[in-house]
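S.,

Sequence below, as promised.
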Amino acid sequence: MTAIPGEFARGTIEREGQAGQAWLAELPGIVDDLLERWACVPDGEVTHGGVGVVVPVRRDGEPAVLKVSFPHPGNVHEPDAYVAWGGRGAVVLHERDDERFAMLLERVSTSTLAELEDGDEVVAVAGRLNRRLAVPAPPGLPRLREQAGAWEEQLGRDAEELPHALPRRVLDAAVATVRELGRAQPDTLVHGDLHAGNILRADREPWLAVDPKGCAGDPAYDGGTLLKSRALALVQADDLHKAVHRVLDVFAETAELDRERVRRWAQFHAVQSAYWGRRHGFRVARGGTRLDLLTRFLDHLAELLTERP
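The prediction came back faster than expected:
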């Protein structure tokens, strides 16, 4: 029977409670059943991400990975995105079991884009992938424009309920982005969580994307997810203003996107993250001084992004 990593089990129970514990009890049997069903042989140590286990396997001698995720609405459309891309800029989907949130995927390296020291190269690779992944979205995917009302409502609630609220002009800029860009987005497939940790080295192509949310919207939206994920790298910058605008410049150029749209989405993401940190903390900082420092940095980032260059 497949052994589930202890760190993954603890994190799942902490996040999902009793439902997570019940799913973990079934998970070894699910994995073993899928290995047999898809004629796969385990071929390495079981690893994991935030919400799923990854089992290296071989099928007919060829390497692949079996991924099984915790059943959650955010994971539903990952295989649909892979089908639409057909291996173009992302890993190939070999098999899927939607009922059990399971997939058999092309195996790539565990080395991520986040390991590169050259910040410009990290952003450029992400930008080029963003451009390649921006294909017509298939029907049935969630449309980001349908979330605009909830985004605006949550921003208002956060501003009222949370201490040390952001300056009004910063909040107003984020709300304006939701109203002006968020409600009229194209039917373009976007990754939805494009950051350096979700871009892996590969043999078929130098870099391939994994773990998409699978949604339709503005490709510039993922410029905001990328910049947000660069927060820990940017906090070390000697000149934060220069470093942030360099990220925007490089991403917009390589993704072939309007820079102003990228800036506005990045500002919206920074505001969202600043409020989220106050309510929930972050995976890298659940509380204490570290969380306070990261939240203050996100406040500063949101203010900086509010100003046009």
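The CA atoms of residues 150 and 178 lie 10 Å apart.

Coffee later?
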